[in-house]
Protein backbone atom coordinates (compact mmCIF):
# COMPACT_ATOMS: atom_id res chain seq x y z
CA UNK A 1 0.00 0.00 0.00
CA UNK A 2 1.50 3.34 -1.04
CA UNK A 3 0.84 6.74 0.49
CA UNK A 4 0.86 10.06 -1.30
CA UNK A 5 3.62 12.55 -0.42
CA UNK A 6 1.07 14.64 1.47
CA UNK A 7 0.01 11.65 3.54
CA UNK A 8 3.63 10.75 4.24
CA UNK A 9 4.35 14.29 5.43
CA UNK A 10 1.20 14.39 7.58
CA UNK A 11 2.11 11.12 9.28
CA UNK A 12 5.61 12.43 10.03
CA UNK A 13 4.57 15.92 11.18
CA UNK A 14 1.58 14.95 13.37
CA UNK A 15 3.71 13.44 16.19
CA UNK A 16 5.91 16.54 16.22
CA UNK A 17 2.95 18.83 16.87
CA UNK A 18 1.21 16.63 19.42
CA UNK A 19 4.52 15.67 21.02
CA UNK A 20 5.47 19.31 21.58
CA UNK A 21 2.05 20.10 23.06
CA UNK A 22 2.35 17.06 25.31
CA UNK A 23 5.78 18.20 26.50
CA UNK A 24 4.34 21.60 27.39
CA UNK A 25 1.45 20.05 29.31
CA UNK A 26 3.67 17.62 31.21
CA UNK A 27 6.24 20.31 32.05
CA UNK A 28 3.50 22.57 33.43
CA UNK A 29 2.33 19.76 35.70
CA UNK A 30 5.88 18.97 36.82
CA UNK A 31 6.60 22.64 37.56
CA UNK A 32 3.38 23.05 39.53
CA UNK A 33 3.92 19.95 41.64
CA UNK A 34 7.61 20.49 42.36
CA UNK A 35 7.33 24.21 43.12
CA UNK A 36 4.00 24.32 44.92
CA UNK A 37 2.13 21.13 45.70
CA UNK A 38 4.86 19.16 47.47
CA UNK A 39 5.48 22.08 49.84
CA UNK A 40 1.98 21.98 51.24
CA UNK A 41 1.11 20.19 54.42
CA UNK A 42 -1.07 17.12 54.30
CA UNK A 43 -4.76 17.71 54.91
CA UNK A 44 -7.06 20.66 54.30
CA UNK A 45 -9.07 21.85 57.28
CA UNK A 46 -12.73 22.20 56.58
CA UNK A 47 -14.18 25.30 58.18
CA UNK A 48 -17.74 24.86 59.39
CA UNK A 49 -19.53 27.71 61.07
CA UNK A 50 -21.02 26.95 64.44
CA UNK A 51 -24.76 27.15 64.95
CA UNK A 52 -26.15 30.48 66.04
CA UNK A 53 -26.69 31.12 69.74
CA UNK A 54 -30.35 30.89 70.67
CA UNK A 55 -32.04 34.14 71.72
CA UNK A 56 -32.75 34.76 75.35
CA UNK A 57 -36.47 35.12 74.71
CA UNK A 58 -37.87 31.77 73.70
CA UNK A 59 -40.84 31.26 71.46
CA UNK A 60 -42.05 28.61 69.06
CA UNK A 61 -40.45 30.49 66.13
CA UNK A 62 -37.12 30.92 67.88
CA UNK A 63 -37.05 27.24 68.81
CA UNK A 64 -37.77 26.30 65.20
CA UNK A 65 -35.02 28.67 63.99
CA UNK A 66 -32.48 27.31 66.48
CA UNK A 67 -33.27 23.68 65.67
CA UNK A 68 -33.00 24.44 61.98
CA UNK A 69 -29.57 26.00 62.49
CA UNK A 70 -28.37 22.97 64.44
CA UNK A 71 -29.70 20.59 61.78
CA UNK A 72 -28.05 22.63 59.02
CA UNK A 73 -24.75 22.55 60.87
CA UNK A 74 -24.99 18.77 61.22
CA UNK A 75 -25.79 18.41 57.52
CA UNK A 76 -22.84 20.64 56.67
CA UNK A 77 -20.63 18.46 58.83
CA UNK A 78 -21.89 15.32 57.08
CA UNK A 79 -21.34 16.83 53.64
CA UNK A 80 -17.89 17.98 54.69
CA UNK A 81 -16.94 14.49 55.87
CA UNK A 82 -18.26 12.86 52.70
CA UNK A 83 -16.38 15.25 50.40
CA UNK A 84 -13.25 15.94 52.44
CA UNK A 85 -11.56 12.79 51.13
CA UNK A 86 -11.71 13.81 47.52
CA UNK A 87 -11.02 17.51 48.11
CA UNK A 88 -7.97 16.59 50.17
CA UNK A 89 -6.87 14.24 47.38
CA UNK A 90 -7.14 17.02 44.82
CA UNK A 91 -5.71 19.74 47.04
CA UNK A 92 -2.84 18.47 49.17
CA UNK A 93 -2.37 14.73 48.82
CA UNK A 94 1.30 14.03 48.28
CA UNK A 95 0.58 10.49 47.06
CA UNK A 96 -1.80 11.77 44.41
CA UNK A 97 0.74 14.32 43.21
CA UNK A 98 3.60 11.83 43.28
CA UNK A 99 1.65 9.60 40.93
CA UNK A 100 0.85 12.54 38.65
CA UNK A 101 4.49 13.62 38.84
CA UNK A 102 5.76 10.18 37.85
CA UNK A 103 3.23 10.00 35.03
CA UNK A 104 4.22 13.44 33.77
CA UNK A 105 7.96 12.70 33.87
CA UNK A 106 7.55 9.47 31.91
CA UNK A 107 5.14 11.16 29.51
CA UNK A 108 7.61 13.99 28.95
CA UNK A 109 10.28 11.43 28.05
CA UNK A 110 8.12 9.55 25.56
CA UNK A 111 6.77 12.80 24.10
CA UNK A 112 10.31 13.95 23.37
CA UNK A 113 10.95 10.66 21.58
CA UNK A 114 7.71 10.98 19.63
CA UNK A 115 8.59 14.55 18.66
CA UNK A 116 11.46 13.27 16.50
CA UNK A 117 8.99 10.91 14.76
CA UNK A 118 10.62 9.67 11.53
CA UNK A 119 13.94 11.51 11.84
CA UNK A 120 15.82 8.75 13.73
CA UNK A 121 14.71 6.02 11.28
CA UNK A 122 17.70 4.85 9.19
CA UNK A 123 17.85 6.47 5.79
CA UNK A 124 18.21 3.09 4.09
CA UNK A 125 15.43 1.40 6.07
CA UNK A 126 13.08 -0.86 4.20
CA UNK A 127 9.39 -0.32 4.81
CA UNK A 128 6.03 -1.31 3.41
CA UNK A 129 5.19 2.42 3.47
CA UNK A 130 7.10 5.37 2.11
CA UNK A 131 8.76 7.24 4.99
CA UNK A 132 9.04 11.02 5.04
CA UNK A 133 12.14 12.61 6.59
CA UNK A 134 14.06 9.51 7.75
CA UNK A 135 17.66 10.68 8.11
CA UNK A 136 18.93 8.56 11.00
CA UNK A 137 20.93 5.39 11.49
CA UNK A 138 20.86 2.31 13.67
CA UNK A 139 22.14 4.16 16.75
CA UNK A 140 19.56 6.94 16.58
CA UNK A 141 16.84 4.39 15.92
CA UNK A 142 17.85 2.37 18.98
CA UNK A 143 17.91 5.50 21.15
CA UNK A 144 14.42 6.53 20.09
CA UNK A 145 13.08 3.02 20.55
CA UNK A 146 14.55 2.90 24.07
CA UNK A 147 12.75 6.04 25.22
CA UNK A 148 9.49 5.09 23.53
CA UNK A 149 9.55 1.73 25.28
CA UNK A 150 10.27 3.57 28.54
CA UNK A 151 6.91 5.26 27.98
CA UNK A 152 5.13 2.08 29.07
CA UNK A 153 5.30 3.69 32.50
CA UNK A 154 2.60 6.19 31.49
CA UNK A 155 -0.27 3.66 31.28
CA UNK A 156 1.13 1.91 34.34
CA UNK A 157 0.93 5.17 36.27
CA UNK A 158 -2.63 5.57 35.02
CA UNK A 159 -3.47 2.23 36.58
CA UNK A 160 -1.75 3.24 39.83
CA UNK A 161 -3.77 6.45 39.90
CA UNK A 162 -6.98 4.48 39.52
CA UNK A 163 -5.83 2.17 42.31
CA UNK A 164 -5.26 5.22 44.48
CA UNK A 165 -8.78 6.51 43.85
CA UNK A 166 -10.26 3.09 44.58
CA UNK A 167 -8.35 2.59 47.83
CA UNK A 168 -8.77 6.09 49.25
CA UNK A 169 -12.31 6.87 48.14
CA UNK A 170 -14.02 3.49 48.02
CA UNK A 171 -12.01 1.46 50.53
CA UNK A 172 -11.36 4.29 52.97
CA UNK A 173 -7.57 4.13 53.04
CA UNK A 174 -5.80 7.07 54.62
CA UNK A 175 -2.93 8.96 53.05
CA UNK A 176 -0.52 7.31 55.48
CA UNK A 177 -1.76 3.83 54.56
CA UNK A 178 -1.21 4.41 50.85
CA UNK A 179 2.22 5.95 51.37
CA UNK A 180 3.24 3.04 53.56
CA UNK A 181 2.08 0.14 51.41
CA UNK A 182 0.75 0.65 47.89
CA UNK A 183 2.64 3.82 46.99
CA UNK A 184 6.26 2.65 47.29
CA UNK A 185 5.48 -0.77 45.82
CA UNK A 186 3.64 0.74 42.87
CA UNK A 187 6.36 3.26 42.01
CA UNK A 188 9.09 0.62 42.34
CA UNK A 189 7.36 -1.93 40.11
CA UNK A 190 6.57 0.66 37.46
CA UNK A 191 10.17 1.85 37.17
CA UNK A 192 11.56 -1.68 37.28
CA UNK A 193 9.28 -2.82 34.48
CA UNK A 194 9.81 0.32 32.40
CA UNK A 195 13.59 0.42 32.67
CA UNK A 196 13.89 -3.36 32.52
CA UNK A 197 11.98 -3.75 29.27
CA UNK A 198 13.67 -0.71 27.70
CA UNK A 199 17.16 -2.00 28.51
CA UNK A 200 16.24 -5.53 27.43
CA UNK A 201 15.20 -4.15 24.06
CA UNK A 202 18.68 -2.69 23.59
CA UNK A 203 20.44 -5.96 24.37
CA UNK A 204 18.05 -7.93 22.14
CA UNK A 205 18.43 -5.48 19.21
CA UNK A 206 14.67 -5.02 19.08
CA UNK A 207 14.52 -1.34 18.14
CA UNK A 208 14.15 -0.87 14.39
CA UNK A 209 11.96 0.90 11.86
CA UNK A 210 8.29 0.64 12.90
CA UNK A 211 6.95 2.81 10.03
CA UNK A 212 5.90 5.77 12.22
CA UNK A 213 9.00 5.84 14.42
CA UNK A 214 11.56 3.42 15.78
CA UNK A 215 10.34 0.82 18.19
CA UNK A 216 10.18 -2.95 18.57
CA UNK A 217 10.19 -4.34 15.03
CA UNK A 218 11.98 -6.93 12.92
CA UNK A 219 14.64 -6.11 10.36
CA UNK A 220 14.15 -6.84 7.53
CA UNK A 221 10.42 -6.48 7.99
CA UNK A 222 9.63 -9.66 6.03
CA UNK A 223 12.24 -11.79 7.77
CA UNK A 224 11.43 -15.20 9.21
CA UNK A 225 11.29 -15.09 13.00
CA UNK A 226 12.38 -17.90 15.28
CA UNK A 227 8.95 -18.58 16.75
CA UNK A 228 7.62 -19.15 13.20
CA UNK A 229 10.07 -21.62 11.62
CA UNK A 230 9.74 -22.25 7.88
CA UNK A 231 8.42 -25.49 6.49
CA UNK A 232 11.69 -26.20 4.72
CA UNK A 233 14.94 -24.41 4.05
CA UNK A 234 13.81 -23.19 0.64
CA UNK A 235 11.36 -20.84 2.34
CA UNK A 236 14.31 -18.85 3.62
CA UNK A 237 15.21 -17.94 0.05
CA UNK A 238 11.98 -17.56 -1.85
CA UNK A 239 8.26 -17.46 -1.17
CA UNK A 240 6.44 -18.80 -4.20
CA UNK A 241 3.14 -17.23 -3.14
CA UNK A 242 4.05 -13.53 -3.10
CA UNK A 243 7.42 -13.75 -4.81
CA UNK A 244 9.34 -12.09 -1.94
CA UNK A 245 12.54 -13.32 -0.43
CA UNK A 246 12.42 -14.33 3.23
CA UNK A 247 15.55 -14.50 5.33
CA UNK A 248 16.32 -14.90 9.01
CA UNK A 249 16.02 -11.65 10.95
CA UNK A 250 19.19 -9.62 11.33
CA UNK A 251 17.65 -7.58 14.17
CA UNK A 252 14.46 -7.76 16.15
CA UNK A 253 14.03 -11.51 16.15
CA UNK A 254 10.72 -12.52 17.72
CA UNK A 255 9.67 -8.87 17.80
CA UNK A 256 6.04 -9.97 17.52
CA UNK A 257 6.28 -11.70 20.90
CA UNK A 258 8.18 -8.88 22.57
CA UNK A 259 5.67 -6.29 21.42
CA UNK A 260 2.95 -8.02 23.37
CA UNK A 261 5.14 -8.97 26.30
CA UNK A 262 6.68 -5.52 26.76
CA UNK A 263 3.82 -3.24 25.70
CA UNK A 264 0.48 -4.42 24.39
CA UNK A 265 -0.03 -7.16 26.97
CA UNK A 266 0.30 -4.81 29.97
CA UNK A 267 -1.51 -2.03 28.10
CA UNK A 268 -4.51 -4.16 27.27
CA UNK A 269 -4.67 -5.34 30.86
CA UNK A 270 -4.85 -1.70 31.93
CA UNK A 271 -7.89 -0.97 29.76
CA UNK A 272 -10.42 -3.05 31.74
CA UNK A 273 -8.80 -2.14 35.06
CA UNK A 274 -8.97 1.62 34.45
CA UNK A 275 -12.59 1.43 33.32
CA UNK A 276 -13.61 -0.95 36.12
CA UNK A 277 -11.79 1.01 38.81
CA UNK A 278 -13.32 4.35 37.89
CA UNK A 279 -16.73 2.70 37.58
CA UNK A 280 -16.39 1.41 41.14
CA UNK A 281 -15.41 4.87 42.36
CA UNK A 282 -18.33 6.47 40.55
CA UNK A 283 -20.83 3.95 41.93
CA UNK A 284 -19.49 4.48 45.44
CA UNK A 285 -19.81 8.25 45.14
CA UNK A 286 -23.31 7.85 43.70
CA UNK A 287 -24.26 5.67 46.66
CA UNK A 288 -22.94 8.25 49.12
CA UNK A 289 -24.82 10.96 47.25
CA UNK A 290 -28.07 9.02 47.57
CA UNK A 291 -27.48 8.54 51.30
CA UNK A 292 -26.94 12.26 51.72
CA UNK A 293 -30.05 13.05 49.71
CA UNK A 294 -32.07 10.64 51.85
CA UNK A 295 -30.75 12.34 54.98
CA UNK A 296 -31.71 15.75 53.61
CA UNK A 297 -35.21 14.49 52.77
CA UNK A 298 -35.64 13.32 56.37
CA UNK A 299 -34.40 16.68 57.55
CA UNK A 300 -36.94 18.47 55.34
CA UNK A 301 -39.76 16.37 56.76
CA UNK A 302 -38.67 17.14 60.31
CA UNK A 303 -38.50 20.86 59.59
CA UNK A 304 -41.99 20.69 58.06
CA UNK A 305 -43.33 18.92 61.17
CA UNK A 306 -41.69 21.53 63.38
CA UNK A 307 -43.28 24.24 61.25
CA UNK A 308 -46.75 22.74 61.64
CA UNK A 309 -46.30 22.45 65.41
CA UNK A 310 -45.11 26.04 65.57
CA UNK A 311 -48.17 27.21 63.65
CA UNK A 312 -50.43 25.31 66.04
CA UNK A 313 -48.68 26.85 69.04
CA UNK A 314 -49.06 30.33 67.54
CA UNK A 315 -52.76 29.78 66.85
CA UNK A 316 -53.31 28.48 70.38
CA UNK A 317 -51.46 31.47 71.81
CA UNK A 318 -53.64 33.88 69.83
CA UNK A 319 -56.84 32.12 70.94
CA UNK A 320 -55.79 32.28 74.58
CA UNK A 321 -54.94 35.98 74.30
CA UNK A 322 -58.26 36.76 72.63
CA UNK A 323 -60.18 34.75 75.24
CA UNK A 324 -58.40 36.57 78.05
CA UNK A 325 -59.29 39.97 76.60
CA UNK A 326 -62.96 39.02 76.08
CA UNK A 327 -63.36 37.62 79.58
CA UNK A 328 -61.86 40.72 81.32
CA UNK A 329 -64.59 42.06 83.85
CA UNK A 330 -66.03 45.56 83.41
CA UNK A 331 -65.21 47.93 86.22
CA UNK A 332 -68.47 50.00 85.79
CA UNK A 333 -72.17 49.19 85.19
CA UNK A 334 -73.66 49.16 81.73
CA UNK A 335 -75.70 52.32 82.50
CA UNK A 336 -72.73 54.27 83.72
CA UNK A 337 -70.68 56.41 81.49
CA UNK A 338 -67.38 54.98 80.40
CA UNK A 339 -64.58 56.07 82.65
CA UNK A 340 -61.70 57.99 81.34
CA UNK A 341 -58.66 55.81 80.96
CA UNK A 342 -56.07 56.53 83.57
CA UNK A 343 -52.46 57.34 82.82
CA UNK A 344 -51.48 53.99 84.32
CA UNK A 345 -53.74 52.10 81.92
CA UNK A 346 -52.45 54.08 78.98
CA UNK A 347 -48.87 53.48 79.92
CA UNK A 348 -49.55 49.80 80.55
CA UNK A 349 -51.27 49.47 77.19
CA UNK A 350 -48.45 51.21 75.45
CA UNK A 351 -45.93 48.96 77.10
CA UNK A 352 -47.88 45.83 76.23
CA UNK A 353 -48.27 46.94 72.62
CA UNK A 354 -44.58 47.83 72.43
CA UNK A 355 -43.59 44.45 73.90
CA UNK A 356 -45.73 42.67 71.30
CA UNK A 357 -44.14 44.69 68.51
CA UNK A 358 -40.63 44.02 69.83
CA UNK A 359 -41.42 40.33 70.18
CA UNK A 360 -42.74 40.11 66.61
CA UNK A 361 -39.64 41.86 65.31
CA UNK A 362 -37.13 39.83 67.34
CA UNK A 363 -38.72 36.47 66.51
CA UNK A 364 -39.44 35.90 62.82
CA UNK A 365 -42.63 34.32 61.64
CA UNK A 366 -42.52 30.52 61.59
CA UNK A 367 -43.35 30.51 57.89
CA UNK A 368 -40.26 32.61 57.17
CA UNK A 369 -38.05 30.34 59.25
CA UNK A 370 -39.50 27.29 57.54
CA UNK A 371 -38.89 28.72 54.07
CA UNK A 372 -35.32 29.62 55.00
CA UNK A 373 -34.70 26.12 56.32
CA UNK A 374 -36.08 24.49 53.17
CA UNK A 375 -34.01 26.82 51.01
CA UNK A 376 -30.88 25.94 52.97
CA UNK A 377 -31.69 22.25 52.63
CA UNK A 378 -32.06 22.52 48.86
CA UNK A 379 -28.82 24.49 48.62
CA UNK A 380 -26.96 21.86 50.62
CA UNK A 381 -28.44 19.15 48.42
CA UNK A 382 -27.19 20.89 45.29
CA UNK A 383 -23.77 21.40 46.88
CA UNK A 384 -23.48 17.72 47.78
CA UNK A 385 -24.54 16.67 44.28
CA UNK A 386 -22.09 19.02 42.56
CA UNK A 387 -19.20 17.88 44.71
CA UNK A 388 -19.98 14.23 44.26
CA UNK A 389 -20.06 14.80 40.52
CA UNK A 390 -16.61 16.38 40.79
CA UNK A 391 -15.31 13.13 42.26
CA UNK A 392 -16.46 11.19 39.25
CA UNK A 393 -15.55 13.80 36.66
CA UNK A 394 -11.92 14.25 37.69
CA UNK A 395 -11.23 10.52 37.60
CA UNK A 396 -13.26 10.01 34.42
CA UNK A 397 -11.31 12.75 32.65
CA UNK A 398 -8.03 11.02 33.47
CA UNK A 399 -9.55 7.80 32.17
CA UNK A 400 -10.67 9.49 28.94
CA UNK A 401 -7.19 10.94 28.40
CA UNK A 402 -5.77 7.44 28.78
CA UNK A 403 -8.30 5.87 26.41
CA UNK A 404 -7.91 8.60 23.79
CA UNK A 405 -4.14 8.13 23.73
CA UNK A 406 -4.10 4.37 23.26
CA UNK A 407 -7.35 3.43 21.54
CA UNK A 408 -6.18 4.06 17.97
CA UNK A 409 -2.86 2.31 18.56
CA UNK A 410 -4.80 -0.68 19.84
CA UNK A 411 -7.07 -0.65 16.78
CA UNK A 412 -4.14 -0.44 14.35
CA UNK A 413 -2.16 -3.21 16.02
CA UNK A 414 -5.24 -5.41 16.30
CA UNK A 415 -5.93 -5.06 12.58
CA UNK A 416 -2.32 -5.88 11.80
CA UNK A 417 -2.58 -8.90 14.06
CA UNK A 418 -5.60 -10.01 12.04
CA UNK A 419 -3.54 -9.51 8.85
CA UNK A 420 -5.73 -6.61 7.71
CA UNK A 421 -4.33 -3.36 6.37
CA UNK A 422 -5.47 -0.31 8.42
CA UNK A 423 -6.57 2.77 6.54
CA UNK A 424 -4.28 5.79 6.43
CA UNK A 425 -6.67 7.80 8.63
CA UNK A 426 -6.23 5.28 11.45
CA UNK A 427 -2.47 5.60 11.21
CA UNK A 428 -2.80 9.38 11.28
CA UNK A 429 -4.98 9.37 14.42
CA UNK A 430 -2.56 6.88 15.96
CA UNK A 431 0.38 9.20 15.26
CA UNK A 432 -1.52 12.28 16.43
CA UNK A 433 -3.14 11.10 19.67
CA UNK A 434 -0.60 8.70 21.14
CA UNK A 435 1.92 11.46 21.97
CA UNK A 436 -0.83 13.83 23.18
CA UNK A 437 -1.58 12.42 26.63
CA UNK A 438 0.61 14.97 28.42
CA UNK A 439 -1.51 17.84 27.11
CA UNK A 440 -4.75 16.07 28.01
CA UNK A 441 -3.45 15.29 31.49
CA UNK A 442 -2.54 18.95 31.87
CA UNK A 443 -6.10 19.99 31.06
CA UNK A 444 -7.45 17.50 33.60
CA UNK A 445 -4.91 18.50 36.25
CA UNK A 446 -5.59 22.24 36.04
CA UNK A 447 -9.33 21.94 35.31
CA UNK A 448 -10.47 22.33 38.97
CA UNK A 449 -8.74 25.71 39.12
CA UNK A 450 -10.68 27.07 36.19
CA UNK A 451 -13.91 25.24 37.03
CA UNK A 452 -13.85 24.96 40.84
CA UNK A 453 -16.42 23.07 42.86
CA UNK A 454 -19.06 25.56 44.07
CA UNK A 455 -18.95 26.30 47.77
CA UNK A 456 -21.89 26.73 50.04
CA UNK A 457 -22.24 30.47 50.48
CA UNK A 458 -22.55 30.36 54.23
CA UNK A 459 -21.55 27.14 55.86
CA UNK A 460 -19.02 25.16 53.85
CA UNK A 461 -15.55 26.23 52.82
CA UNK A 462 -13.31 23.61 51.26
CA UNK A 463 -10.39 24.75 49.11
CA UNK A 464 -10.34 23.06 45.75
CA UNK A 465 -7.24 22.76 43.66
CA UNK A 466 -5.60 20.28 41.37
Automatic annotation (TrEMBL):
Subcellular location: Membrane
Positions in coiled-coil regions: none
Regions crossing the membrane: 146-167, 188-207, 261-283, 391-412, 424-446
Biased composition (Polar residues): 359-372
GO biological process, one term: adenylate cyclase-activating G protein-coupled receptor signaling pathway
Comp. bias intervals (Basic and acidic residues): 310-327
Region described as Disordered: 310-372
Topology term for the membrane: Multi-pass membrane protein
GO molecular function, one term: G protein-coupled receptor activity
Official protein name in the record: G-protein coupled receptors family 2 profile 2 domain-containing protein
UniProt organism field: Nitzschia inconspicua
Amino acid sequence: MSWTPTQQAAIAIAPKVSGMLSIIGSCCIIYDIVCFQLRRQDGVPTVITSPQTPPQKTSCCSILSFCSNISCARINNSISKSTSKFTSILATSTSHHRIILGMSISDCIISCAHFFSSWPIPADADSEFSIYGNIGNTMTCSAQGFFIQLGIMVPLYNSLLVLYFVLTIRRGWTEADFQKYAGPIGHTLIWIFGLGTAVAGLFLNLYNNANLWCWIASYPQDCVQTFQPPVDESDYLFDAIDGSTKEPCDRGDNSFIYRFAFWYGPLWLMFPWVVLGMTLVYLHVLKQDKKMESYLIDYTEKVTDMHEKAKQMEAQHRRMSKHAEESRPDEDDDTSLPAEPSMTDLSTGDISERERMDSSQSHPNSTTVHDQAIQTCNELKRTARVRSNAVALQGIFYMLAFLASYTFSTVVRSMQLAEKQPHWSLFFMFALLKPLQGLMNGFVYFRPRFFPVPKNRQNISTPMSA
